[in-house]
Design goal:
Elements lengths: L1 E6 L13 E6 L6 H4 L4 E4 L7 H4 L6 E4 L9 H6 L3 E3 L6 H19 L7 E5 L3 H12 L3 E5 L1 H7 L7 H7 L2 E4 L17 H6 L4 E5 L8 H9 L3 E6 L10 H6 L2 E2 L8 H19 L18 E5 L5 H12 L3 H9 L4 H6 L11 E5 L3 H10 L3 E4 L1
Parallel strand pairs: 1-2, 1-3, 3-4, 4-5, 6-7, 6-8, 8-9, 9-10, 10-11, 12-13, 13-14
Helix pairs in contact: 4-5, 4-12, 12-15
Length: 378
């Protein structure tokens, strides 16, 4: 029977592989070489370092990470040592889209902005960036897309240079992998030089990797008024985050943008399926059937006197009032990892039923485009 070490915070996993494997669950950040040594496979999140020091003397043949990011995996070492690995591309793209939607809803509520008059720059247009672009387009924003690797491979049509994003965007949101070196390096991509060229009062959103933004220089840009709204879900030096920067952020959360129950289920399913493919287990199409329903699955909105923007803001905020996560982190930033590990249930838009009284077809169409699948005019 194959032996698997699995991160004990991966949801919906316990009991699934046990009929076919000896599975041991351990805290991801505390999983080391001695734990891994006799394992045939690992199912991880980003906190387990899959590198030479942990893998050199092991029997590991397969690593499946239930995350989009894989910078915790030394892919060169794995290739040189015939260790197969897989990630879960796009697994939490809907969750990050919901996070951005809640941020935009908050801007409307707090600052009374008309987002249809604003420009959003999306840096990194992979699985997540594309969904954020679809969201922004659905609510009428002007969208600028920057993705040099894709532009080089596919052609420049539809993409703009980073300089154009910087100069013309009211909000810039980052959805890139962390690349420390090379032609498409993203480490400290957002820095003092970038901020100095932004429109004054720009909003900066980071939900990808903390090191993509120089946190010290972002703090300075907030203090000098260049950046008006900083929204950070990821930070340099997690979990020991910059408390001064935390204090200055419009929204601050503990690396949970992709933590919807739907996103977690997608990541777990991708890992189970990858393990099953590699070891020829009968779970190649497995998907969790026990994702809990939202606490309040029905959304009732009286649209009398409301604009289309007012309606989608109400619907989004019902599904995810992001300030609850913000308040938890501000109250106890030293519990960053605990807040991640015990994250409460969050379901995405498709899990809700929206009933619109005094609504219009335009409102229904907007909600459908955003991902609300069950919308009824009553």
């Amino acid at each position: 029977m194959i032996k698997i070490i699995a991160d004990d915070k991966i949801p919906f996993l316990k009991g699934v592989l046990e009929p076919f494997a000896d599975v041991r669950y351990l805290p991801g950040a505390k999983t080391g070489a001695s734990d891994i040594k006799e394992a045939d496979a690992l199912i991880t999140r980003t906190r387990t370092q899959c590198n030479k020091s942990n893998l050199a003397d092991s029997k590991v043949k397969k690593i499946a990470t239930a995350t989009i990011g894989f910078d915790h995996i030394d892919t060169d070492f794995c290739k040189a040592n015939n260790i197969d690995w897989s990630n879960a591309p796009g697994c939490n793209s809907g969750s990050v889209k919901q996070y951005l939607a809640s941020v935009l809803a908050l801007m409307v509520m707090q600052q009374n902005v008309r987002l249809s008059e604003k420009t959003i720059g999306i840096v990194g247009v992979g699985n997540v960036g594309k969904k954020v672009a679809d969201l922004a387009g659905a609510i009428g924003m002007r969208v600028l897309l920057n993705d040099p690797p894709r532009a080089e491979k596919e052609g420049t049509e539809g993409f703009v240079e980073l300089d154009e994003v910087i100069q013309h965007s009211d909000i810039i949101t980052f959805h890139v992998p962390l690349q420390r070196t090379g032609k498409f390096a993203t480490h400290h991509l957002a820095n003092a030089s970038m901020f100095s060229q932004c429109k004054k009062g720009v909003g900066i959103v980071n939900t990808c990797r903390g090191e993509v933004i120089d946190n010290k220089e972002l703090l300075e840009a907030i203090q000098n008024g260049t950046v008006a709204n900083a929204i950070l879900d990821v930070w340099e030096n997690e979990p020991d985050i910059n408390l001064q920067l935390l204090d200055k952020c419009m929204v601050a959360t503990p690396h949970i943008a992709g933590y919807s129950a739907d996103g977690k289920a997608n990541g777990t399913a991708a890992s189970v399926q990858a393990i099953s493919e590699y070891f020829n287990l009968p779970l190649k199409d497995w998907y969790p059937d026990d994702i809990p329903l939202p606490v309040r699955p029905e959304i009732h909105i009286d649209a009398q006197g409301l604009s289309v923007q007012d309606v989608w803001v109400k619907a989004v905020w019902h599904t995810y009032p992001i300030l609850e996560d913000d308040e938890r982190l501000r109250r106890s930033p030293d519990t960053f990892e605990v807040l991640r590990g015990s994250y409460p249930l969050r379901r995405e838009f498709q899990a809700y039923h929206v009933q619109l009284s005094n609504g219009t077809e335009e409102m229904k169409e907007m909600l459908n485009k955003m991902g609300f699948c069950h919308v009824q005019l009553i």
